[in-house]
Amino acid sequence: MKAVIVLLQVVLIFPLLILFSGAILMSCNRPSATAKKNNKDRTIKASKVSPNEVKKTLFLTFDDGPGTGTNNVSQTVEYEKILVTFFIIGNHVFNSRKQRQTWAALKADPYIELCNHGYTHAWHNNFNKFYLCPDSVVTDFKLTEDSLDFTNNIARMPGRNIWRTGTVKKTDIQNSVAAADSLRKAGFILIGWDFEWSLNPKSLNVAITADTLIKKLDSLFEHNKTRKAGNLVLLAHDRIFKNSYNFLQLRRLIEKLKNRKDYRLSWLSDYPN
Questions:
Q1: What secondary structure letter does DSSP report for 193?
Q2: Are 2 and 9 spatial neighbours (Cβ–Cβ below 8 Å)?
Q3: What pLDDT was estimated at residue 251?
Q4: How many CB atoms lie within 10 A of CB 76?
């Protein structure tokens, strides 16, 4: 009888021991926050290593997210494992639950760098009045910085190709000079772009194909038509890639660039000076 009781105890306790030991193993194998950060750092470091053949550093930048098209871009980035920079509009993050979720996904992606594009996009595209009020411009950018907790001070002025870096100073529209200087004085590094992959307003397709764009980029590098030799900032707006044709062109662009040994894709935080 005692043997039967012992046998029943073993049968009942053994599954519990398996479950308990499994739980311990799962907790031991679950990465901590520190481990996740270290893995992210290693991923980023590996992505930024460039071969000796590299002669051209390309900075892929996407403005105005999070919104429609942002997820198409970020999914491509994650699949291709390339470094890109997004310029974020502060109030776009809080417009809807979906946009907040998109923002959270962008922050978690180790291949994406996030930078400041202001909170209201120049008072909802009211550019002239916005830039005539330098103090309000600074307040607008600081609101985004404070509410989204950026880890860098890189910014891009909406509707303006303005530069204020350590060695590059350029203003495309002169009534924005005071606002740009005020942002620089407030600690922001302003980076515009060397070329824009624009949209055809009639067809709503990108104005040039990925193949033609690469030829254009090659020409800009070859003829030294960039702000810094060997470095080119490409601007696109992520909303245009909700269009399936444009999305396929983006995929083709990235695939072709990855196969070019003379190109390196990097973050704007790597831009010279």
A1: -
A2: no
A3: 97
A4: 18
Residue 232's DSSP bridge partners are 58
Candidates 157, 167, 235, 159; CA nearest to 190 is 157
End-to-end CA distance of the chain: 84
pLDDT digits (tens, 9 = 90+) for 49-85: 445 567 899 999 999 999 999 999 999 999 999 999 9
What was the pLDDT predicted at 55? 86
| Tokens representing residue 112 in the block | 């994406």
| Other beta carbons less than 10 A from residue 61's beta carbon | 25
pLDDT digits 0-9 by tens, 134-145: 999 999 999 999
Judge whether 260 lies within some domain: yes
The ranges of the chain with pLDDT < 70 are: 1-53
Q: Is residue 101 part of a domain?
A: yes
- Enter the tokens of residue 192: 């515009």
From the DSSP assignment, how many helices (H) and strands (E) are in the chain? 11, 10
CATH code: domain of residue 221: 3.20.20.370
The domain in which residue 128 lies consists of: 54-270
- For residue 105, being part of any structural domain is answered with yes
What is the b/e burial string over 9-30, where b = at least 16 CB atoms within 10 angstroms of the residue's CB?
Answer: eeeeeeeeeeeeeeeeeeeeee
Residue 175: alpha-carbon gap to chain centroid? 29
Report yes or no on 49 lying in a domain. no
User: What's the confidence (pLDDT) of residue 28?
Assistant: 35
- The continuous run of DSSP H or E covering 154 comes out as strand 154-155
